[in-house]
Amino acid sequence: LYDMPVSNNGARCRLIIYEKGLSPESDVIIKSPMDLGGLKSKEYLELSPQGKMPLLVCEDGAIPESDTISRWLLDKFSAQKPSFVPSASAARVKSDLICRFHDMYITTIQSAMYRAAPPFGQFSSRRDALQELARQLQTINGYVDDEGPYITGKEISLADAAVFPTMVFVMHMMPKF
């Protein structure tokens, strides 16, 4: 897994690795993209056309995109618990929706929390991007199970792995920058 600690998208994969008790030294080796020359190097771009983190290189080939990597990890290591797939169908649907909303509408503008200057996704002002970020967080909140303790109820789900690292950005990085 090519990733760095500053990536909330990569943290989704790392959270799954750690919660499942997988070894980052043998089960899924975590390396810096610099080991391939960096995100924009020819070597990295041949494996990840967008030049983004994370990137998983495994027996199935090169797999970019945190959601796809996460689902591969859940499948590959399905014998290790937790499954990250709620047993209730309603919770599974909510988890999938939350992941989709997170990836489509939050990560695309999250740079408004820390980047010095626009654009921030489709927005040319930080204010507009942050207003949209707040709106999307409210949308996700509408799918949260109030009884918890996890986002979709009693079981940890892929939604927790996706949203938690981003909320760390919201709570700690945004006020700084």
Give the structure's gist in a few sentences.
With 177 residues, the chain is mainly α. The longest helix is centred in the last third of the chain and has 19 residues, at 158-176. It contains 6 helices and 2 strands.
**Termini distance?**
29 Å
The total count of helices amounts to: 6
Radius of gyration: 17 Å
Structural class: mainly alpha
What sequence of helices (H) and strands (E) makes up the elements? HHEEHHHH
Task: Describe what this molecule looks like in 3D.
The protein has helices at residues 8-19, 42-47, 66-76, 89-106, 126-141, 158-176, and strands at residues 55-58, 61-64. It folds into two domains: 8-76, Glutaredoxin; 89-176. Helix 4 (89-106) packs parallel to helix 6. The two termini are 29 Å apart. The chain is built from six helices and two strands. Pfam families: GST_N_3. It comes from Guillardia theta (strain CCMP2712). This is GST N-terminal domain-containing protein.
Features:
177 residues, mainly alpha, 2 domains, 46% helix
What order do the helices and strands come in, and which of them pair?
Layout: H1 8-19, H2 42-47, E1 55-58, E2 61-64, H3 66-76, H4 89-106, H5 126-141, H6 158-176
Antiparallel strand pairs: 1-2
